[in-house]
Design a protein that fits this description.
- It comes from Neobacillus ginsengisoli.
- This is Aryl-alcohol dehydrogenase-like predicted oxidoreductase.
- InterPro entries: Aldo-Keto_reductase, NAD(P)_OxRdtase_dom_sf, NADP_OxRdtase_dom.
- The chain is of the alpha/beta class and 329 residues long.
- The protein has one domain: NADP-dependent oxidoreductase domain (TIM Barrel), CATH 3.20.20.
- Helices cover 36% and strands 17% of the residues.
- It is built from eleven helices and twelve strands.
- Helix 4 runs parallel beside helix 5.
- The chain is globular, with a radius of gyration of 19 Å.
- The model has no long low-confidence stretch (mean pLDDT 89).
């Protein structure tokens, strides 16, 4: 495993993080035993970064991590937690809450569910449009001073918001979607992060399965949230799968597969970029781990980017009603 420093003065974490959302929510049926086995396999492979959210499975994901990381395993884990997204009893989404009192309330429940004394990195899942980011980050900073949080992150924030938050308390990372199919951050957000010395926690590196190399048109309409994603619809899906086939040709020449090529591309973007892998099974995890040792030359990178120009991807990454909550398309 490779390791990368978090922010300017943070600890080293594994260059690949395990995103645990799919073990509890949004991607269909889950297998608790396999999920825990996957977390244990990640630890054994040297992964130290585990990403969760208090709203993943309405608390289920934090309880799952608690079970998987009991005992000495907690000492080897850097736990990043998102908060603020609110759920209804039927699993629906009912807004975000970044008020200072809500921050402290969310954190209290997270500490209990995870069975820990502190959270390694705490971040709002979305910027609350009704609460100045200075107030939200200020509340987390209070929790840093109190010893309940070690580092502060942001998720899906734009460059201006990042600067405002960073002026209140050092931000260690920004978590945002970044992949061959989602490169909107390269224009303004990524340069801002590098100016300020903030790491990038890249999620969606396989574009929710499109870049796995295993998605096919007949899977459209799968009973999960991708059914509502523009990238998985109609002609958009046809165009995107055609791009994947072009990548498959490049991958085969490199004696690898599409998923590993896509992950290796994200890893190649800089020592300050830390991809999150949403593996739900040990087999998926192993596939991702194989990407760590895949070296891409400058010629390889140019070939890949020529095959998948940023503007060639069809459809937005979220449905229209959710795009307005993001810092960048």
């Amino acid at each position: 495993m490779l390791y990368r420093k978090l922010g300017q003065s943070g600890p080293s974490v594994s260059a690949l993080g395990l995103g645990c959302m799919g073990m509890s929510d949004l991607y269909g049926a889950t297998d608790r035993k396999e999920s825990i086995a996957t977390i244990h396999a990640a630890l054994e492979a040297g992964i130290t970064l585990f990403d969760t959210g208090d709203f993943y499975g309405v608390g289920h994901n934090e309880l799952l991590l608690n079970e998987a990381l009991k005992g000495s395993k907690r000492d080897n884990a850097f736990i990043a937690v998102k908060f603020g997204a609110m759920r209804s009893p039927d699993g629906g989404w009912v807004g975000v809450d970044g008020r200072p009192q809500a921050v402290k309330n969310f954190l209290s429940y997270t500490l209990q569910r995870l069975g820990v004394d502190y959270i390694d990195l705490y971040q709002p899942a979305r910027v609350d449009p009704n609460v100045p980011i200075e107030e939200t980050v200020g509340a987390i900073a209070d929790m840093v001073k109190a010893g309940y949080v070690k580092h502060i992150g942001l998720s899906e924030a734009n460059a201006e918001t990042i600067r405002r938050a960073h002026s209140v308390h050092p931000i260690s990372w920004l978590q945002i979607e970044y992949s061959l199919f989602s490169r909107g951050i390269e224009k303004e957000i990524l340069p801002t992060l590098r100016e300020l010395g903030i790491s990038l926690s890249a999620y969606g590196v396989l574009s929710r399965g499109l870049l796995s190399g295993k998605w096919s048109k007949d899977r459209h309409g799968a009973p999960d949230f991708r059914s509502f994603s523009p990238r998985f619809m109609g002609e958009n899906l046809d165009k995107n799968l055609a791009l994947v086939e072009t990548l498959r040709e490049i991958a085969e020449e490199k004696q690898t597969n599409v998923a590993q090529l896509a992950i290796a591309w994200v890893l190649s973007r800089g020592e300050d970029v830390i991809p999150l892998i949403g593996a739900r099974k040990r087999s998926q995890l192993q596939d991702a781990l194989n990407a760590v040792g895949l070296q891409l030359s400058q010629s390889d990178l140019e070939t890949i980017e020529a095959a998948v120009p940023a503007e060639a991807v069809a459809g937005t990454r979220y449905a229209a009603d959710q795009m307005g909550m993001l810092g960048v398309e």
